[in-house]
Amino acid sequence: MNFLSTFLLVCLISTTLCVPIIELPAESVDNSIDDDDDDVQLLWCSGWRVAGEANNLSPWNKIPENCVDYVQDYMLSRSYEIDMDIVCDEAMEFAKSVVVGDDGLDVWVFDVDETLLSNLPYYGQHGYGSELFDNIQFDKWVLEGVAQAIKPSLKLYKEVQRLGFKIFLLTGRTENKREITINNLIMAGFENWDRLILRGEEDHGKTAVAFKSEKRKAIMDEGFRIIGNSGDQWSDLIGSHVSMRSFKLSNPMYFIS
């Protein structure tokens, strides 16, 4: 067989056998994304919430306008409840793994708002975080003293208490709200904590990170060991003198630095 015959035979075999495994339709595929599509908006808002929970967002003072419905649906859904359950269950498993000392110096720190007590009725009347925060209106809500317990946190609270931890409540609420905060907590089922630490006059103007770091330092300077810390804001958990383990609870409605 001469060279030309061999060449033609190879070409014929290649053409016959080299058939694509998957044949795509001849028409072009449109991979563009329509930003007005409801599914895309839902995905974007979900991604925004996850970025916030991971502390990857720059400081913000209200939720994106296009995510109001998403945040409302999330906060009122079983999804929010499940997210809270998972974090609190993980915290309980960690607490059970700790050998609590006999010296009474092992502490679990809890934030109050959106950690132990839910302010969802207030935020539901104010756009689920789509309005700029109004401290006067929020204070009026706080003074009603009717915030309900976040059930997974109440379960965790009672468990760490049963395990022998000291319970310290560290909140950004001001000292003049001590009495209503105590009454509200007891009404919601939280009892027999060891300390309730609020902002005093000397703490005015401090960021939450600075305020809570200073208070944790003071606790540790007394010889206490902060084993666990539960909060809905990263500013509850980060800074200096942090706990052995921290547990971030879901809250896409507002950000506190």
Q: What's the SSE blueprint?
A:
Layout: H1 3-17, H2 38-53, H3 68-75, H4 78-97, E1 106-110, E2 117-118, H5 120-124, H6 135-144, E3 148-149, H7 151-162, E4 166-174, H8 178-188, E5 195-199, H9 208-221, E6 225-231, E7 245-248
Parallel strand pairs: 1-4, 1-6, 4-5, 6-7
Antiparallel strand pairs: 2-3
Helix pairs in contact: 4-7
Short summary of the structure?
This protein has 257 residues and is of the alpha/beta class. It has nine helices and seven strands.
Structure characterization notes:
With 257 residues, this protein is α/β, with parallel strands linked by helices. Helices cover 43% and strands 13% of the residues. It contains 9 helices and 7 strands.
Task: Quickly list its features.
257 residues, alpha/beta, 5-stranded parallel β-sheet, two-stranded antiparallel sheet, 9 helices, 7 strands, 43% helix, 13% strand
Strand order of the largest sheet: 5-4-1-6-7
Q: What is the H/E order? A: HHHHEEHHEHEHEHEE
Radius of gyration: 27 Å
Could you say which overall geometry the principal axes of the C-alpha atoms support?
globular
Tell me, rounded to a whole number, the average pLDDT.
90
